[in-house]
Amino acid sequence: EGHSCSDPAQTPLPCPDGYVSAQGQANCTRCANDEIPASPVPNSCQPCPAGHACSDPTLDPVVCAAGEYALLGDAVCTRCPAGSECPSTSTVNTCTGGTYSGEGQTSCEQCPAGYSCNTSSSTPCSAGFYSALGDVTCTECPAGSCCPFGSATHTPCDNGFY
Fold first, then answer.
1. What phi and psi, each to the nearest 5 degrees, are found at residue 64?
2. What pLDDT sits at residue 109?
3. Whole-structure pTM over 0.85, yes or no?
């Protein structure tokens, strides 16, 4: 296991980095680019570990950066998509419940007051509309109230205005 035995008259040679040999095999076989040799005995290939990139089985897996993720068996790290959070390099979750995120984020944020939000962006409320913290839509300002651009609340209009 983990050795090349191509010449029975010679001592078995350890498989080079990125190669494996199961018991009874005469030669070492290279793992695929999204795999690494099993440890501690390189007798089989295993999927690239979650949270790592494995582009070459002869090299050590590379840890993904914050805001990126890789699931078990992925060969490359992927930037966390807008509308999702990547709290670890091996996890991707969709933003829910009044939260949003841009691309490459480790967490979703609550929709700010004075904005409308979908899962991937926030937009200030237009004049005549308002929204409270966590609301995903802007609400029309009631009659007799004032709501300037990006309002978090509605306020009574000054005398002579409506």
1. -65, 150
2. 94
3. no
